[in-house]
Amino acid sequence: MTWLDPGLPNSLTPGRRPRTTLTPSLALRGDTPVMAFGTPGGDQQDQWSTHFFLGVALRAPVRSGLDLQGAIDAPNWHQESFPGSFHPGR
Asked: Which residues cross the membrane (predicted)?
């Protein structure tokens, strides 16, 4: 996401990459990759990724856990901060 207003940290400027909020994640079992996941979402993305991962990871004998679609569709919550990362854009 870039802005056309000059002087902002994320202003459109030649030779500069835009700030992104994607958080790709890789789950390992030992040294073996078992799942890649991530989510867009600005300030909430790390919270949503954690909820998804725990929903899938808790398939261990301690909890019943969810399959991938169940973890995606499960009810979720998040905390918002003020000002948000996209302020004043939204």
From this structure: none
Burial 19-39 (b: 16+ CB within 10 A, else e): eeeeeeeeeeeeeeeeeebeb
What's the burial of 14, exposed, middle or buried (CB within 10 Å: 0-12/13-18/19+)? exposed
Contact by Cβ (8 Å): 46, 52: no
> Domain map of the chain by residue range?
41-74
Residue 27 structure tokens? 């789950």
Burial classification of residue 56, based on how many CB atoms lie within 10 Å of its CB (0-12 exposed, 13-18 middle, 19 or more buried): buried
Count Cα neighbours of 89 within 13 Å in the Cβ-side half-sphere: 13
Instruction: List the pLDDT tens digit at each of the 90 positions of the chain.
Output: 667 888 877 788 888 766 666 778 888 888 999 888 888 767 788 888 888 888 887 655 445 567 878 877 878 777 777 766 666 665
